[in-house]
Amino acid sequence: MPLLPALISFLLLLTSPAARAGDLLPAPQGPILLAVSGDIDRTTDGQVALFDRQMLESMGIITLAAISPLDDEPVQFQGVLLRRLLAVVGAHGTAVEAIALNDYVAEIPIAEAEHHDVVIALTRQGHDIPVREMGPLMILYPIERGLDTEAVAARSVRQLSQIVVRDGATPWDGKSVVARSGPASNDGSSLAP
Ligand SMILES: Nc1nc2c(c(=O)[nH]1)N[C@H]1C(S)=C(S)[C@@H](COP(=O)(O)O)O[C@H]1N2
Ligand SMILES: [Mo]
User: Fold this and answer.
1) What does residue 188 show for φ and ψ, rounded to 5 degrees?
2) I need a surface site. Which of 1, 85, 89, 106 has the fewest CB within 10 A?
3) Is the distance from CB of 112 to CB of 146 less than 8 angstroms?
4) Which N-terminal stretch is annotated as signal sequence (predicted)?
5) pTM, whole model, 2 decimals?
6) Ligand 1 center to residue 104 CA distance, Å?
């Protein structure tokens, strides 16, 4: 299906007044890049929401500068906002478990993704990201004061393959929020109120 009609039908589906818990998202046509499960209202097969590249792109691509494991300095990435994906699947709960191809798991508070432009990157400098370069999907945080912490680095999941929506073990404590005053904390252990 050409991109524009696919995009329009996808957006219509999302905004339709008939959209409700249990509605099915369009089934993926290409290779599956991401599986979203857990506490979600919309799936592709009644169990899990599977996404191919085109489906992810149809949610709206944003560009951000970030530093990947391969970079010494910021380069341009393009991807989908995590909060946009969570809106598409109708996520409940307070956190997502982001799971990598190598079974690495990190918990990301949903409130953090609402507050910051946490991105699921699809391309690096205009190109798909090979698995050996920590793709095809990678969670990136914007370069922002207050986000340069080890905790945030640990949530920057490379080779992302699954997201499970659930209630978090620990509610977000706001530690990655940009402090309005006072010195920037760089270890996440102290935060100006
Ligand atoms: N797939 C995967 N992603 C991962 C990790 C991992 O072990 N596997 N480690 C995390 C941790 S603890 C850190 S500090 C950063 C390291 O990212 P870097 O290689 O850009 O420094 O990746 C995060 N993402
Ligand atoms: Mo780390």
Assistant:
1) 75, 0
2) 1
3) no
4) 1-21
5) 0.82
6) 9
Nearest ligand 1 atom to alpha carbon 67: 20
Predicted confidence band at 146 (pLDDT cuts at 50, 70, 90)? confident
Using DSSP bridges, classify how beta strands 127-128 and 32-38 pair: parallel, antiparallel or unpaired: unpaired
Distance 33 CA to ligand 2 centre (A): 24
Backbone angles phi, psi at 82, to 5 degrees: -55, -40
Identify whether the C-beta of residue 13 lies closer than 8 Å to the C-beta of residue 19.
yes
- Rounded Cα–Cα distance for residues 118 and 140 (Å): 6
Mean pLDDT for the stretch of residues 136-141? 97
pLDDT tens for 64-111 read 999 877 788 999 999 999 999 999 999 999 999 999 999 999 999 999
- How big is the chain by its Cα radius of gyration, in Å? 17
| Pocket-forming residues, ligand 1, beta carbon under 6 Å | 69, 100, 102, 104, 153-154, 156-159
CA of 66 to the centre of ligand 1 (A): 14
Instruction: Set out the domains of the chain in order of their start, with CATH numbers.
Output: 3-192 (3.90.420.10)
The whole-angstrom separation of Cα 9 and Cα 60 is: 14
